[in-house]
Write a structure and sequence with these properties.
The complex is a heterotrimer. In chain A, a hairpin with a 2-residue loop joins strand 3 and strand 4. Chain A has a single domain, classed as Rieske Iron-sulfur Protein (3-layer Sandwich). By secondary structure, chain A is an all-beta fold. Chain B has one domain: TIM Barrel, CATH 3.20.20.140. Helices cover about 40% and strands about 10% of the residues of chain B. By secondary structure, chain C is α/β, with parallel strands linked by helices. Chain C has 14 helices and 8 strands. In chain C, helix 6 runs parallel beside helix 7. Chain C is globular. Chain C starts with a helix and ends with a helix. Classes of the chains: A mainly beta, B alpha/beta, C alpha/beta. Chains in contact: A-B, A-C, B-C. Chains A and B meet through loops of A and loops of B.
């Protein structure tokens, strides 16, 4: 059954940083890309590398050979082993978006004051009203 | 439409038992070889460095898509390049992956490709001792490879004979981009020494010889260069067969390492086909080429082929011969294969154990 | 349906309507080209005694068993492939071919001098037109070019543009450089515009060693190594983005062997997944690019069981559109009339025999129309 889990406070993960969390035995990578947060499974579906250890890269495309077009800085995670790229927004791999993907989780940033007690699993997070929390649905 | 998912529960059942034929040890600093290198060559190295047949003195002309060609999770916390920390190697690879024995394949300086032959030979001696002192004596699971300066056959033979009785060494290492194809007669004393010392010849991807890295000229991109290593291995195997090396040295055993697997059945068939037409040119061959390959050549598994289906992979193994496949990871390089997930097929316990462990145990005569 | 259609037919009609995509006409000697050279080159032939040179390529030694099938030799020591009548009797008539494509491997394209190479390529193409195309309406030809000067090569292709019997541009698999390189693109641009396929044929100009491991000792090794050169050239054309730039371009690998293709696409696809950011214009897997753009002539196949090999390749490559019938005449790849193995299922057999070639060479049938109008 899906439930919402507090996994970190916003100020714990600076822009460009990531954190590996464990929820119900699942390893999930939480990424801060320029203030926007994403949550994806940590295991590369190819050979099981820890995606959280990969490099955040932009999207490289080309209108024609030799013309490199760069966008979405830091929004893809490149596997630390074989270099497969996964879109943090969807979990889909660049090369086989329909076939090879990593689980992408619903993530919300919510103020402590809005979090209703009992709805959340936050064993390690005493919720305080003035902080911002990262909440992942798993 | 299906999503590939790691079947963790399935793989967790397997207690891993692995012999890894391809581990790349690195130096934290090049001064690590100082204790084993004559002062003349220490000076030479610091003044002139590597002198190879390519454009950069310290770098490759097709820079890899990952620094140091390595997994980016393989950098030791204490600094130094991937593969330089025994502690991390244990923690990240040997222990969790159940490695019972790991074979060291040192690539630094590319001693066999050095144009200064004396320098190359000195480096092989130093790096062979370095492997034993720095690695094998510290970690009993590791084994060393005898580096040789193959272009200086006399020095190579001397080094093989010097190390041949030392159980720390399991194989002789040559990188395939040699001055001439490895079947040529100039290299035969090396094979003679290998047989004399009962050591296999392992041909691991690498080397520089000044020849374009493909049969169509120099490639522009690393994507092409990476592909070309499989073709280089085909050239090496073709040469060993047609020069009659296997015919002349029936006890010689050769390992083709990191060259891929997909081309083995097709090359064997192609050699047989055109040998049947042109055999009058090579009367020293007594049998179809594929027979020599089947009997005297083994192949390391990484980078594992990933065909469209598991059935194609099984069919490939069937055609190569299951007993010819030696598992390897290439740790800590970027195209590392994980023993749990590398084979995208449902293997039986027996098949898995044969590939990960049994074949190499038999081949290298381990325990 | 998997049916053994051939069993129902006499061997004579088995290949009726075939399109034979690899025939080798031989230039009997320099004298044949003299009428097509200008005054300067005619004088040079005399001054430099070029007519005494044997321009046989090292890739095909004239008397090597592979270069001519024993029952296809000619009398009086004439070069194999130098007689149209013999070619007609040996393959065109006996197969009842609808079309045959001439790939001339005379040495014109490998001279180091770009000007000399271009002059002799031009003469070769003129000679092909007069001595072959004009004498048998089933024949089509590849335009011989010296690819080491792009401008001259383009000019030669332009010169043949209106003669639809030229259906392809011919390049050697081991020329001066990898074939994806941008300096060659004007050739591809023009070929695409004119509906010409790019035919890459086995053979080397020997500008560099045939393998990355250096120079082998034996001819048989050189020949075997060529399938690896084909791998490199496909990888080059894919990586450089030739097919991204020229989406309608068709490439035909001629006399490349076939069975290496499985291993090639496995490795190429896997490599692309990790390295595609280096070549972001490669937006589809190499296997898919090959399915869309590359075709292969079927001799040699390189398998002990050729039927099984073709079926396996069709399965691995997920296409029955890839292969083109060829005899490789007069090269000795097969005996009797087994240019194709028995027992191929019918749609696949028909595709290989003719349908795939018709789709690959749009100019081929157009030439019939042009000939009728001319008459």
């Amino acid at each position: 059954m899906m439930a919402r889990h507090i996994v970190a406070t916003v100020d714990e993960i600076a822009p460009g940083q990531r954190r590996l969390v464990s929820v119900n035995g699942r390893e999930i990578g939480i990424f801060n890309v320029d203030g926007e947060f994403f949550a994806v499974g940590n295991r590369c579906p190819h050979e099981g590398a820890s995606l959280c250890k990969g490099r955040l890269v932009g999207l490289v495309e080309a209108s024609e050979p030799g013309s490199y077009q760069y966008s979405r800085r830091g929004e893809l995670i490149r596997c630390p082993w074989h270099g497969w790229e996964f879109d943090l927004r969807t979990g889909k791999s660049w090369c086989e978006p329909d076939r090879t993907k990593v689980r992408s989780y619903e993530l919300k940033v919510e103020p402590g004051g809005a979090l209703v007690e009992g709805e959340l699993r936050a064993e390690t997070f005493p919720v305080s009203i003035e902080k911002q929390y990262i909440v992942v649905e798993v | 439409m299906s999503t590939i998912e790691m079947d963790r529960s399935q793989s967790a059942k397997h207690k891993l038992r692995v012999i890894d034929c391809d581990i790349h040890p690195a130096m934290t600093s090049w001064t690590e070889v100082h204790p084993y290198l004559e002062k003349q060559w220490i000076d030479h190295l610091s003044v002139y460095g590597s002198h190879l047949r390519h454009a950069f003195s310290e770098a490759l002309s097709h820079p890899r898509m990952s620094p140091d060609a390595a997994r980016i999770d393989a950098y030791p916390d204490e600094g130094g390049p991937p593969g330089s920390s025994l502690e991390l190697m244990r923690k990240q690879h040997l222990d969790p992956n159940g490695v019972q024995v790991g074979m060291l394949i040192p690539l630094r300086w590319n001693p066999g490709s050095q144009r200064n032959l004396d320098f190359g030979a000195a480096l092989t001696r130093a790096m062979n001792t370095w492997q034993v002192e720095r690695w094998v004596k510290q970690e009993p699971r590791l084994r060393a490879s005898v580096l040789v300066a193959q272009e200086d056959t006399e020095a190579a033979v001397k080094e093989i004979d010097a190390r041949g009785g030392d159980p720390n060494f399991t194989q002789i290492l040559i990188l395939p981009r040699t001055d001439e194809p490895l079947g040529r007669r100039r290299y035969w004393p090396i094979y003679e020494a290998a047989v004399r010392n009962n050591l296999p010849i392992t041909v691991h991807v690498g080397g520089t010889n000044g020849h374009p890295s493909t049969g169509g000229g120099w490639p522009s991109y690393y994507m092409e260069e990476h592909h070309s290593v499989a073709q280089t291995m085909q050239a090496v195997l073709t040469s060993l067969v047609f020069e009659g090396v296997f015919e002349r040295f029936p006890k010689l055993r050769v390992v083709i390492m990191e060259g891929g697997l997909g081309w083995i059945p097709s090359l064997s068939a192609r050699m047989d086909k055109h040998w049947s037409r042109l055999r009058s040119e090579v009367p020293h061959l007594k049998r179809p080429p594929s027979e020599y390959v089947r009997e005297q050549v083994w192949f390391s598994t990484q980078p594992m082929e990933e065909p469209g289906s598991a059935a194609e992979l099984i069919d490939l193994f069937d055609r190569i011969g299951w007993d010819r496949l030696l598992f390897s990871t290439d740790y800590p390089h970027w195209d590392f294969d994980d023993p749990r997930y590398a084979f995208k097929a449902n293997l039986s316990e027996a098949q898995r154990d044969q590939l990960l462990y049994g074949n190499s145990r038999n081949f290298y005569g381990l325990g | 349906m998997v049916g053994n259609r051939q069993a129902d037919l006499s061997q004579a009609t088995r290949y009726a309507g075939a399109i034979d995509c690899d025939l080798h006409p031989a230039v009997p000697g320099m004298s044949a080209l003299m009428p097509y050279l200008d005054d300067y080159w005619r004088e040079m032939v005399s001054v430099r005694a070029l007519d005494r040179l044997n321009l046989n390529l090292t890739s095909y030694p004239q008397n090597a068993p592979l270069s001519c099938r024993p029952d296809w030799t000619l009398d009086q020591g004439r070069k194999p492939g130098s007689s149209l009548e013999a070619m007609q009797a040996h393959v065109l008539n006996s197969c009842q071919s609808r079309y045959g494509i001439l790939n001339c491997l005379y040495g014109a394209q490998v001279f180091h001098s770009e000007d000399m190479a271009a002059a002799f390529c031009r003469a070769t193409n003129d000679w092909l037109r007069d001595e072959w195309l004009n004498r048998d309406s089933r024949l089509r030809a590849s335009i011989t070019i010296a690819a080491h000067n792009t401008e001259l090569a383009v000019a030669e292709i332009e010169r043949r543009a209106d003669d639809f019997r030229f259906v392809q541009v011919l390049m050697l698999v081991s020329g001066e450089m990898t074939l994806g390189r941008r300096q060659l693109w004007p050739i591809y641009q023009l070929a695409e515009r004119l509906g010409l396929a790019i035919g890459i044929h086995a053979g080397s100009a020997y500008r560099y060693a045939p393998t990355a491991a250096g120079w082998p000792s034996y001819y048989v090794e050189d020949y075997i190594a060529q399938s690896c050169a084909f791998e490199s050239q496909l990888q080059s054309m894919i990586s450089e983005g030739v097919f991204a730039k020229f989406p309608n371009l068709k490439v035909v690998a001629i006399e490349s062997g076939l069975t290496w293709l499985s291993g090639f696409v496995w490795r190429a696809d896997k490599t692309w997944k990790g390295l595609r950011a280096e070549v972001p214009w490669v937006t589809r897997a190499p296997s898919e690019i090959i399915r869309n753009h590359v075709r292969f002539t079927v001799q040699p196949i390189d398998a002990a069981d050729e039927r099984e090999a073709i079926l396996r390749l069709t399965d691995h490559l997920k296409s029955d559109k890839l292969f083109l019938f060829s005899t490789d005449y007069p090269h000795w790849q097969f005996d009797g009339d087994v240019a194709l193995p028995d027992g191929l299922p019918d749609p696949l057999f028909r595709n290989i025999l003719s349908e795939n070639a018709l789709a690959t060479y749009p100019r081929m049938a157009k030439a019939d129309h042009a000939l009728e109008v001319a008459e």
